Amino acid sequence: MTTDLGAQNLTALLDSARQDYSELAGRGLKLDLTRGKPAADQLDLADELLTLPGSKTHKAADGTDTRNYGGLNGLLELRQIFAGLLQVPVGQLLAAGNSSLELMHDAFVQALLGQVPGAQSRWADQGPIKFLAPVPGYDRHFSICERFGIEMIPVPMTETGPDMDVVTRLVAEDASIKGIWCIPKYSNPTGTVYSDETVRQLAEMSTAAPDFRIFWDNAYSVHHLTDDRVEIADLLGLATAAGNADRVFVFGSTSKITFAGAGVGFFGASEANIKWWLAGLSKRSIGPDKVNQLRHATFLGSAEGVLAHMEKHRALIGPKFEATLRILNEQLGGTGLATWTEPQGGYFITLEVPEGTASDIVARAAEIGVVLTPAGATHPLGQDPTDSIIRVAPTFPTQTDLEAAVLALTTCVKLVGYEQKIKQQ
Ligand code: PMP
């Protein structure tokens, strides 16, 4: 009796989702929820950069002519602004080109073809090597490993970071595991903030590999969405205190602070790692774009200046996150068809749908003109074994387009979800 009623109910729910879907199909939507890009109004916030440093103001604080070659470490005044924000002593923080992803790619190339401090040989000469990949994670991280044939071992994310029972066990027993990807604050795509205990364990754990590296991609260190400016524990400081200073590579950038195509990337590490990095870098470059670094230092002014600037971003994107969460709640709350993260910062919301439905939902959305990040992108090799994770990136569309896209997405979740429930009965 109950089952019959349930079945009738489900059929009615599916019919209603089908109706909504065909109504949406008729609208000729053209909406995009794929990449975590800043919207144009966010970029406008930094437009003053286009007039900086200004003619006749090309000198750095120490008198360096920023227009000329040299200064591999990057401008001191900019490194001083970001040292505290990225939790790296200023002497161990380099300011580089326009992208931290490039620095991560470079780090692999240097470790494969050079020899990181503590290594017995180059990674390329060590036979097959592996990396730990917390999932869901960032597809561009995984693509770097994929490109170099580095096997990735997925590690489940928990609410406090990667599952450290799994991490500590694997790294202790397998010397071919050379490192782990980490996005410690407002993680892409779950919004997870690593707990102090997770950071401490990462700093102190025993690793079978003497040349183990934590790729600490602090891409969202200042990207708060609430009044609570979340702080995480200082990995480099804790690792140094534990005698493991060399295991940490810190990355960051101003991509989602100023201009995503014309910002500044940062690399921080132990003194030995920095010496090693600069030796390799000196073969690759005669110096970074110091004019860009000078204009960033002038525009941002101080760490407080960075945080004040981020408040302006929050005013623009906060309502987009709120609207997304509101619609998810209104449309999917209580349906049992999805759960989602409620990030306190960063750029993404992760939507978890019933196993085996994510790719179908993404495909149905595409059919009605709503493009989502491909299902599976949050996992190594683009393969989510549960086919249940969808990454939602609310920042780039206008508020109106975003709301229409999220509503359409929830319709697809209902359509596919109810279809599956009926099949399973
Ligand atoms: N790391 C993470 C976690 C990101 O989400 C992004 C941008 N989507 C990047 C790095 C890219 O940073 P950059 O622009 O500095 O290369």
UniProtKB/TrEMBL annotation:
The organism's taxonomic lineage, starting at the top: Bacteria, Bacillati, Actinomycetota, Actinomycetes, Kineosporiales
Keyword Transferase: yes
Molecular function in Gene Ontology: transaminase activity
UniProt-recorded name of the protein: Aminotransferase class I/II-fold pyridoxal phosphate-dependent enzyme
InterPro entries: AspAT_Ic (IPR024551), PyrdxlP-dep_Trfase (IPR015424), PyrdxlP-dep_Trfase_major (IPR015421), PyrdxlP-dep_Trfase_small (IPR015422)
UniProt keyword terms in alphabetical order: Aminotransferase, Transferase
UniProt entry tagged with the keyword Transferase: yes
